[in-house]
Amino acid sequence: MPHNHDKLLDHVKKEMPTDEILQDLGDLFKVFGDTTRIKIMFALYEEEMCVCAISELLGMTQSAISHQLKTLKQADLVASRREGKTIYYHLSDEHVKSIIAQGYEHLTE
Amino acid sequence: MPHNHDKLLDHVKKEMPTDEILQDLGDLFKVFGDTTRIKIMFALYEEEMCVCAISELLGMTQSAISHQLKTLKQADLVASRREGKTIYYHLSDEHVKSIIAQGYEHLTE
DNA sequence: TGAACATATGAACAACCATTCATATATTAA
DNA sequence: TTAATATATGAATGGTTGTTCATATGTTCA
User: Fold this and answer.
1) Mapping DSSP to helix (H, G, I), strand (E, B) and coil, where does residue B46 land?
2) Which of A33, A27, A42, A51 is nearest to B30 (CA)?
């Protein structure tokens, strides 16, 4: 007969966040899980930048960058402000920096 | 004529990590970007667990869990030890906890 | 108003990935 | 050695997603 772990499961279940939160967490990290978006966040880590500067920096089309900025904005990781024709993007809070920094440490330890 | 941002790009380029590191960072966060893997990490956050306990906890097949554990192990996020027929998994370092905690804070702030 | 610039967006396509299914490996006990 | 349990793995598939292309929206200046 297979071995039993009811007691263990009871304990772990109590400590697990709701499915909704776990789903949201996965969705959040999914946004970090793309090299282009990581590059954008690292660039904005330094300074606010307009879309065409980012696309020039990464050597990618303006459209591709715009699509990714939309994804980042929906996840509340970046925010923007308009100045004439230009729209400047910047990181929206310190968590972005912390998360990236922790990932970086994990890699380079 | 399009507007110029050579000075800005020069500065940002200097501060950007290498493409290899940026790629590795994206790959690392990709591993966090899946609800099943997030659930596994949260479970192991509490206690070390065997494969069948995890699959029972999440209501998923043993095969699915094994595949995901392999992904987590390759990213050095979990480690395992054998005890007879059973293999116990646990989180491999504190960065996992920090990264999840930061993500959690970003969501619930 | 019209032209030029800056950005956003919808559709389509190719590449990637999580799960399933079937099966293989490993360990223990009889 | 055989049966039972625990885990791993390869192939296949359905769903997801990043980029491209074409085009739309928004802003400024002449």
Assistant:
1) helix
2) A33
Residues in chain B with CB shorter than 8 Å from the CB of A25 are: 35, 38, 100, 103-104, 107
Q: Is the pLDDT of residue A75 over 90?
A: yes
Q: What is the pLDDT of residues B27-72, one digit of tens each?
A: 999 999 999 999 999 999 989 999 999 999 999 999 999 999 999 9
- A90 CB below 7 A from strand C atoms: no
A106: closest chain B residue by CA: B95
Using the predicted structure, report yes or no on whether residue B1 has a pLDDT greater than 80.
Answer: no
* Interatomic distance B105 CA / D3 C1' (Å): 50
Q: Which residues of B touch A17 (CB under 8 A)?
A: 42, 104
A22 Cβ under 8 Å from any chain B Cβ: yes
User: Each residue of A11-30: pLDDT tens digit?
Assistant: 999 999 999 999 999 999 99
Does B103 score more than 90 pLDDT? yes
Nearest CA in chain A to B54: A9
